[in-house]
Structure formats: C-alpha cells, structure tokens
Amino acid sequence: MKIVRFNWFTTFLLIVLLGVGALGAFWGLNKPLLWADEAETALIGRNTMRFGYPTPWDGTTLVTQQEGADAHQIGDALVWTWHPPLQYYLIGISFKLFGESPSSARAPFALFGFLGICALAGAAWTIGKNARFALIVTTLAVFSVPLMLYLREARYYGLLFFAGALVAWGLAKIRRGEAGAITLLGVGTLVAVFSNTVAGIVLTLVAATFALWEPRNRARRGVQLLAALAPTILFAVGWLLLSDPLQTLNRQIAGQPNVPTVWTLIENYHRSFFPPLAWAAIAFLLARPREKEDEYKWIVIIAPLIVGLTIWTIAAVGLPPFTRYLLAAAPFTFLVLGYVLWRIFEWSGVVGVLVIAIVAGTTLATNLPSWSREALTRAHGPFIPQEKVSYLPQFSQELQNHFPGTLEAISVFLRHAAPEGDRILTNYEREAIIFATGRNVLGAKEDLSTRPQWLIPRPNPFLWEFETIPPQYEPFVLDAPNTPVENSPELGEHYFGTPPTQPPLVIYHLRRAPLKDGFDPATILR
Questions:
Q1: What is the pTM of this model?
Q2: Which of 73, 100, 159, 402 could form a disulfide with 195 if both were Cys (CB 3.0 to 4.6 A apart)?
C-alpha cells in the first residue's frame, strides 16, 4: 500500500467514527432487560463478588443450563466451569461500583468492545500505514449492526472482539518490525482464553504460527513469544483440567440430536457478518503483484486461517452454530473486506465512496434481508417484521425508543401481583426473571406436581413444553407478545424495538393461592 499519513481532516474523520462507535456501544444500555444468557452471567457475577469465585449457587437459587454439569464441586465450593471467569469478575466489579442494573451489567463489555474497535483501527493503520485504509475498516466496524448488537451484551462477546483485534494488531506490528507486538499478542490471547477457552486456544495457535512466519529475528522472537503466551497456555491447560470439558460436552451433545456441521457454521457466519473466504478471494484478484509478497500476504492468509480454525474447532465439539462464538475472528474479516473496498477506492475515489457507503449502510456487509426472517417465519409463524434496505434505521430507533419486550411485561406483572415467596414455573427466561424480579423461579425440568403458584408457558420447540394447563389455574392476559425467543443479539432473533406479531402472553395463577396485597389487575392488564 502507498503510505498515506493522517492529516487534520482524516484525523477528524477517525474521531467522528470512533464517536459513532461509542454511541452505538454505550447509548441506552439499560434497555431492554437482560435476556437469558446475559442474566446467567449477571447472577454468577453477583455471586462472584459475594463469595470470591464464580459459583452458580447463592444459597437459594442454582443457575444451570446443563442440569448441573456446568459446575464442579471443589471441596465445599461449587465452582462454575462452563465458561472461564473473566466475564464474571468484570460484571461483579461493575455491580459493586455502580449497583445492579442492566446498564451496569453491560457497561464493561461495551467498553472492551469499543476498545476493540480502536485496536482494529490501529491494526489497519499498522498493516498499510494508510489513513484511508484505516478509515474504511473503522467505518465497516462502527456501522455493522450485528457487531454492535454483540458488543452491547452483558456477555464475553465484546471481550472476544477486543482480543481478536489485539492479536491482529500484534501480528501487523511483527510484519512491520515495530515494538509492542509480543505484548499485544500476549494480552490478546490471555483475554481470549479467560473469556472463551476455544477462541483463546485458536487465537494462540494463530498468533504463534504467524509470529514465527516472519524470518527476521525468528529465534529471538520465539523466546519472547513463548514468554508472552505462557500465561495463556498455562491457564488453558489448567482450565481444561478443571472444567472437564469432555464430560460436560458429552452431556450437552447427548441432548442435541442434530450436531451442527461445518457447513451450517459457515452459513451462519456468512449470514451474520460476511463470507470471509469470498472476500479473501476478491482481495487476491484485486491485489497488486508486490502486495502479494508484502502486507497483503498477511491479510489474505491470516483471515481465512483463523476463521477456518475457529469453525473447525467449534464443529468438532458440537456447539450450536451461533456467530457469537466466532467474534474473535471478526476483526480479521473486517480487515479483508476493508482491503477490498480500499482497492476500489484507490481505483476511483467516487466509486469507492459510493461502494463503501452502500456496504457499510446496508445489509450487504451483514446479512441478506430475507434469510433470517424467512427461517423463523417457517419455524414459528410471523415473528420478525419485514426488514428494510438497511438495519441502521431500526438500530438507531432501538437506541432511542425500545420496545420493552415480553420479559419486561412479565417482570412488571410479577412484581405487582406475586407475593415474595411464590414459586414460578416457566420455560421462558428463568435466569432473566430471577434477576429482574428476585422471585423464586423453577426451571423447565420441574413439573406441575410441585404445584407452583404461577405458570408462564413459552412456545419454543427447543425447550420443554408445558403439559395441558390444569383447571386449577386462572389465566391473566398480558399486553405483550408470547415470543418464541427474547431479544437476543442474533439477527434472526432480534426485533429491533418493534413488537413481534405474536398472540398475547398468558400467565396462569393457582386459584386458591393469594395474590399480592394491593394488586389491581386493571392497572396492569389491558
């Protein structure tokens, strides 16, 4: 690439782009309420600050997704081992400093996600010493609605993006012979392995492989790299021994008759971001001959490899094909796509600006509109409204005026109607209802013989279904849709602040059980 340094104008543009990224990451974090995976993280994070280690048991409520296989007994302590501990300490510290709320739960992850965007801009600049290329890559990141949805979650997703961006930056510095490369690789892989062991191992393999690819000072760099990656390797080995992943994964896979294939994972990654292998092929065709042996070789080789390794690793253990597990690879695919658009821009500035605007502002860089909506429509009936040309209007509207969602309606109703000691049986968002209401919520594996005071059924074919509601229960119809999923970050399950077209939710109450003193249905129910 031709060296194009930052001037006052391009510096101003970069600041504006980072400001847009900050707004997308931090604005309105208090809405909607935490959904199931976020609430699980929040509950264990709260226990972490209370007991000093991540545990699903607070003396009253047990948090579990795998029938107890996601925690291990160590002495008198029940230690959560389904995920590494970093996210729980972060959310626990945030609760300690700012109180317990959805915004304080999400804030640390949004911060790391935003820092990941900054690191991605640094990686792009280091690769080519070209301000235009850095601006293009940053533009793609801050206007990627799927990325922003992930970075705003109270979950490790922002940490993975941050880790991947640090590793990309470190490898770029090695290629340029600049200082700080080994530190970036060490910190990036350590954050990744403390957040998601699979992603951390993949990033470590990629970092080691390509850090030693460059022949200059290979022996010295190998010693430095070993020292930098030693904490990551030691933690990964120790965590794998502690968490006993084969036992927990065997139990999980046993409950999944359809283990995802490599193709389904590639298809899902394609849908939610963009097809990195296709963009790499286009980059190869657009590259200048000199670049094929220079920094371009790094871009084209590293991006497909890290994505491929991540996909194959995940496919091998049979995890669900959600893009959130692949966020550590996303910075590399942004760099590949940014390279393609930069070459178009260099060919024609006018055409380049137009193409960049189209790719950044429409579904071309994220998703083809019909795929996710039609998949859910076929499975569950009408759910997600027809997408427009771009997700940006919906995302902007959501930041300003959230649809509260089914979960918020449930929480408001229970706080008004259910006495503190009532038991609630649901197959909805158990952990989310616990966090939002503080009530005693029974999991879906319980049955009606427990005679709970409340039943909240949910039409989700992937979860336990209620048997016929006994006549001893009276219905309360809420002014909220009975959605098959809450507002999770996947595009196929996100309704962008618009009420889904589902029938209203019905909550059932045991007729002879008392309601909360002062409860007035007229003020809550439609």
A1: 0.91
A2: 159
